[in-house]
Automatic annotation (TrEMBL):
<feature type="transmembrane region" description="Helical">
    <location>
        <begin position="305"/>
        <end position="325"/>
    </location>
</feature>
<dbReference type="GO" id="GO:0005886">
    <property type="term" value="C:plasma membrane"/>
</dbReference>
<keyword id="KW-0472">Membrane</keyword>
<dbReference type="InterPro" id="IPR001807">
    <property type="entry name" value="ClC"/>
</dbReference>
<feature type="transmembrane region" description="Helical">
    <location>
        <begin position="20"/>
        <end position="43"/>
    </location>
</feature>
<feature type="transmembrane region" description="Helical">
    <location>
        <begin position="152"/>
        <end position="176"/>
    </location>
</feature>
<dbReference type="InterPro" id="IPR050368">
    <property type="entry name" value="ClC-type_chloride_channel"/>
</dbReference>
<feature type="region of interest" description="Disordered">
    <location>
        <begin position="414"/>
        <end position="445"/>
    </location>
</feature>
<feature type="transmembrane region" description="Helical">
    <location>
        <begin position="263"/>
        <end position="285"/>
    </location>
</feature>
<feature type="transmembrane region" description="Helical">
    <location>
        <begin position="130"/>
        <end position="146"/>
    </location>
</feature>
<feature type="transmembrane region" description="Helical">
    <location>
        <begin position="376"/>
        <end position="405"/>
    </location>
</feature>
<feature type="transmembrane region" description="Helical">
    <location>
        <begin position="104"/>
        <end position="123"/>
    </location>
</feature>
<dbReference type="GO" id="GO:0015108">
    <property type="term" value="F:chloride transmembrane transporter activity"/>
</dbReference>
<protein>
    <submittedName>
        <fullName>Putative ion-transport protein</fullName>
    </submittedName>
</protein>
<feature type="transmembrane region" description="Helical">
    <location>
        <begin position="188"/>
        <end position="209"/>
    </location>
</feature>
<feature type="transmembrane region" description="Helical">
    <location>
        <begin position="63"/>
        <end position="84"/>
    </location>
</feature>
<keyword id="KW-0812">Transmembrane</keyword>
Length: 445
C-alpha cells in the first residue's frame, strides 16, 4: 500500500469548499431517481391495473403480460428510433459508470427508462439513472463551478446516485475504495470526502422521501457451523458458474439479435419474447425484481425447489433478452433476484441448509460473476438479509466465487463491430472514456 508522502498536505479548505456542492449533487441525484421511479409507478399502475380492468383481464393474466411487454417493446423502440440522441448508446456493452452523455440525449433516455420500468421489463434503473444524473451534474457543474473538473463531478454524481439507489452511503464508500480513485499521495478518506458527502445526502433524500427497503423476511440464521463454510462456498460457486454461463452467452446473443437493424422491430420482438417468458414464469419474474424477491419467502411452503429454480432461470433469460435487444436498463437488480431464487431453491431442496445462508451465498456468487465487484456483492446481501452473523461465511463464499470468475468475462456484451443506427446517432460523450482518473482527488491549487 502506498503511504502518503510527508511533504504533502491535504488542502482541508478545499475539502470544505466542496462540501456544499457535493451535498447538492447528492440531493439532485436522489430527487431525480425518486421522481422518475414515481412516474414509472404511476404508469405501471395504469397499465397493469386500470387498463387491464377495462378489458376484463387481471394483471397476472398471461395474455395481458404478453400484450403489455410487446407494447412496451414497441414504445421503447419508437423512442430509440426517433428521440434526439436515440436514448443513448446500446446499454448491453456499457458498465455502471460511463462518460457523460450530451444533454440532448437525456429526455429520450428518461422516457425509455420510465417505459421500461413501468412495462415490466426484467431490468433495473441503475444504468439509465447513473447516465442521466452524470450528464446533468456535469452540464450544470461546468456552468456554475468551472474550476471543478469533469472527473470530480462524475465522482460526485456516481456517489450520490449509488447512495440514493441503495439508501445508504456505504455502497458508494465500498465501491470507491475498490476503485481507489485519485492522487494516491492523499489519504483514502480525504479522497473520498466529497463523494461520501454526496452519497450521504443522496441516501438521506431517498430515505426521507421514499419507502425504500431492500430487506427480506428470512428466518434468522441460527449461527455459524464449520459445515456452513463448505455449504456457502459450494452454493456460491454454483451461482457464479451460472452467471459465467450467462456471460458467455451474452455476446453471441447480442450479435445475433442485432442482425435486425431496425430498433422498433427489434424492441417489439424482444418485448414479445419477454412477454412469453413472463407468461410462463408468472408476474413474479417481471419488473426489476426488488419487490418481487420480497415475495419469495412467502412462497416457500407452496413452491418446490424446481419452481424456484425455474424462476431464477426465466429471470436470467429475460435479463439477457432485455439487455441484448436494447432496453435501457441495468442488470444488477434482476441478477439479485436470480441469486435469491437460487438460494431458495437450495434451501427447499436441502431443508437442513438455513435459508439465509443459501440465499446469501447464491446472491454473492452471481453478483460477483455479473459485476466483478466483491464489495457490491457483500453489501447487497447485507442489505437484503441484515444479519451480521452471516458475514464470515459470505466472505468465504465471495472469495471462492472470485477465484472462479477472475480472468473471465463479466455480464456485459462485447461492443458490436459496427454501431447500430441508434448508436450512430446517440452523440459523442462529453469526455473521453477514462473518467475515473482523479475522481476522488481535491483541487491542490
Amino acid at each position: 500500500m502506498t503511504e502518503p508522502t510527508t511533504d504533502f498536505r491535504v488542502p482541508v479548505r478545499q475539502l470544505l469548499k466542496l462540501t456544499i456542492p457535493a451535498a447538492l449533487v447528492g440531493i439532485l441525484c436522489g430527487l431525480l431517481l425518486i421522481g422518475l421511479s414515481a412516474l414509472a409507478k404511476v404508469v405501471e399502475d395504469w397499465l397493469w391495473d386500470d387498463l387491464s380492468g377495462l378489458f376484463g383481464l387481471d394483471r397476472d393474466s398471461p395474455v395481458w403480460i404478453v400484450v403489455i411487454l410487446t407494447l412496451t417493446g414497441l414504445l421503447v423502440g419508437l423512442v430509440i428510433q426517433f428521440a434526439p440522441g436515440h436514448a443513448g448508446p446500446d446499454p448491453a456493452s456499457a458498465g455502471l459508470v460511463e462518460p457523460p452523455l450530451p444533454p440532448r440525449v437525456l429526455p429520450g433516455l428518461a422516457l425509455a427508462m420510465v417505459l421500461m420500468l413501468a412495462g415490466g421489463v426484467s431490468l433495473g434503473p441503475e444504468n439509465p439513472i447513473m447516465a442521466i444524473n452524470a450528464a446533468l451534474v456535469v452540464w450544470i457543474g461546468a456552468r456554475v463551478a468551472g474550476r471543478v473538473g469533469v472527473p470530480q463531478w462524475m465522482a460526485l454524481s456516481t456517489a450520490g446516485t449509488l447512495g440514493a439507489m441503495f439508501g445508504t452511503p456505504l455502497a458508494a464508500a465500498l465501491m470507491f475504495s475498490e476503485m481507489d480513485p485519485g492522487d494516491r499521495r492523499i489519504p483514502l478518506w480525504d479522497r473520498l470526502f466529497a463523494p461520501l458527502v454526496s452519497s450521504s445526502t443522496g441516501a438521506l433524500t431517498m430515505l426521507l422521501l421514499s419507502d425504500l427497503d431492500m430487506a427480506m423476511d428470512v428466518p434468522e440464521y441460527p449461527g455459524l457451523h464449520v459445515t456452513d463454510l463448505a455449504i456457502a462456498v459450494a452454493v456460491s460457486l454454483g451461482a457464479a458458474a451460472l452467471g459465467l454461463l450467462a456471460s458467455y452467452v451474452f455476446t453471441p446473443l447480442h450479435r445475433l439479435v442485432h442482425r435486425v437493424r431496425q430498433p422498433v422491430l427489434l424492441l417489439t420482438l424482444g418485448g414479445l419474447v419477454l412477454g412469453l417468458l413472463g407468461a410462463v414464469g408468472g408476474s413474479i419474474t417481471l419488473f426489476k425484481g426488488l419487490d418481487q424477491m420480497k415475495q419469495l419467502p412467502g412462497m416457500v411452503g407452496e413452491t418446490t425447489a424446481l419452481g424456484f429454480l425455474a424462476f431464477a432461470l426465466i429471470k436470467l433469460v429475460a435479463l439477457l433478452v432485455a439487455s441484448s435487444v436494447g432496453f435501457r436498463g441495468g442488470r444488477i437488480f434482476p441478477a439479485t433476484f436470480v441469486g435469491v431464487s437460487l438460494g431458495f431453491a437450495v434451501s427447499v431442496a436441502f431443508p437442513s441448509v438455513p435459508p439465509a445462508l443459501a440465499v446469501g451465498a447464491a446472491t454473492v456468487g452471481i453478483i460477483v460473476a455479473a459485476t466483478r465487484s466483491g464489495w457490491l456483492s457483500i453489501f447487497l446481501v447485507v442489505a437484503i438479509i441484515p444479519q451480521a452473523t452471516l458475514i464470515p461465511p459470505l466472505l468465504f463464499a465471495t472469495l471462492a466465487a472470485w477465484l472462479l470468475v477472475t480472468n473471465r468475462p463479466e455480464l456485459r456484451a462485447a461492443p458490436l463491430d459496427e454501431p447500430t443506427p441508434a448508436e450512430a446517432g446517440s452523440g459523442a460523450p462529453l469526455t473521453p472514456p477514462d473518467t475515473t482518473e482523479e475522481q476522488g482527488s481535491v483541487d491542490r491549487t
